[in-house]
Here is the input.
Amino acid sequence: MQTEYVFDTGSDPGHVQVQCLSDMLDGTSTRILDDLGVPPGARCLDAGAGNGSIARWLADRVGPTGSVAAVDIDTTHLPPSSGVTVHAHDVDDGLPEPGPFDVVHARLLLMHLARRRDIFAEFARSLAPGGWLVVGDVSPRLPHAVTAADADDLALFDRVFETAIAHAAPAVGMNLAWAHSVPHEMAAVGLTDVGSAEHAFTDSGGGAGLRYYGSLLQQVAPVLVSHGLSEAELDRMQELVVDPRFSAWSYQFVFTWGRRPA
Here is the structure.
């Protein structure tokens, strides 16, 4: 079954997308996982593994007696590495390996999937007693411009993202309300010790946060043009995301974790 996730991570903009996500979010993901504890010998699943950075981090923690299954629908930028088994697989069709897992990590995945609740519940069921589920997704808070050489550029950035959230996000199947509902969903499936953290930051042109925006806008450009933005405006956005005089707030990323009772 094909998911509704339409960003082409195998493309050049998709490569920028997954690398920038690693640069922006790996520190937060690994800090949470470190606090929860990933012991030697643990069995882990990294769903929506992107370029494999978290899967490799997990493999380093679990050591030779543990294992990490890294799954993504497109594994173009997910190279094989020691201790990591790579699966080119759609989680809409089930898990690539049967549980139980001591850690399941899913970052910027579920918000894109129509069957997110079913897949989320399957992740929870796959946990070993005492195992942790860690989910990260994007909230509805809009990115917005902070500084620019020209006031028109501030207005352009905000207008582009208002259009993207209003039209491109629904068109590509993104559910921005999901992130803040995850604590409730975890409690509903019986997970305990549930906690959440939000991560947002400002970044300047050329940084991972702004280049990430550039990669996304390239991939949804036809939708944006169909809702009134011009090619020239989108070209200007690509200039702004690499202009060090320009800065903007990131999306608000929401991470939530919960544990299967021992």
